Amino acid sequence: MNNLDTHSKILKAYKILRTITIVFAILGPLAMICSAVVITLLEEGWWFNLFAAFLAGILMMVGTLYLSFLTLMSEITRHIRSKVRSDLSDTPITKWIHRLVMGASIAGVVSYIPFLLIVYDILNGGFAIFHFVCGGTIVALYFVLAINAVIHRIKIRL
Fold first, then answer.
1. Burial annotation 63-101 (CB, 10 A radius, 16+ → b, else e)
2. Global pTM value
3. How far apart are CA 24 and CA 70, in angstroms?
């Protein structure tokens, strides 16, 4: 097996994982909204406030988990892309932020276990804060990456 075969296999894996990530990014929120609609309709009719309450509950239950899995898939896709194309132009700061995002997303997946134990009344509700902190950390780090990207683009244009 030569280097060209390895490169084409990595490129193929990158395209497949990128497609799966895009499909998951689109279908995840749709599944959450459809679940809230179905649960609302099972409660004998449509009522918007009930739909909003069910949607909020579903987002609390699986919002961080969805965001964590989406982040893991996108970071793995990004890592594979760096093997195919080496021009990611990462600064040391963005490398550390991507590492923090990856760690927060792994913690978000792991923090779902205590959240389930809270639902089944085995743990106290205070343990859910860690789950929500993981989701908030991921969102905050993405805001930092977005601000960094905007500043980087402005520097390039000037």
1. bbbbbbbbbbbbbebbebbeeeeeeeeeeeebeebbebb
2. 0.83
3. 7
